[in-house]
Amino acid sequence: MILFFTDFSKIICLFFFAIILTIVIIFLSFIVGVSSPDVEKVSAYECGFDPYEDARNVFDVRFYLVAILFIVFDLEAVYFFPWTVSYDLLSSDAIFIVLDFLVELTAGFIYAWEVGTLDWN
Question: DSSP string spanning 56-73?
């Protein structure tokens, strides 16, 4: 029973340390940080429309399509890291699976390119 509390007390100490450190960092950022808002800082960022206007306005969907494609291809590219690190441990079946994944990823990218999703005309 005492062993449980000693292990649990370490977790509680770490939790309280994280909370206190977070509060200190936020408090110091308000004290030390300089606030100088100007027109460029509060203007629309990347998406091309004002974030404080009516929600029923028409907006360009191409931004969201490119963002979704970036997320999809970025997450799929993350799968290459474990394969490259353990390449010498992979069997021949695993190497064919990696190659199949590469072919499917390339086919998806070519399809998105041919459909015109990545064009900004």
Answer: TS---SHHHHHHHHHHHH
Note whether residue 5 is domain-resident: no
Q: How far apart are CA 97 and CA 102, in angstroms?
A: 9
When divided into structural domains, the chain yields a total of: 1
pLDDT digits (tens, 9 = 90+) for 93-106: 988 988 898 898 88
Is the Cβ–Cβ distance between 65 and 117 less than 8 Å?
yes
DSSP state of 47: S
DSSP string covering 56-117? TS---SHHHHHHHHHHHHHHHHHTHHHHHHTGGG--HHHHHHHHHHHHHHHHHHHHHHHHTT
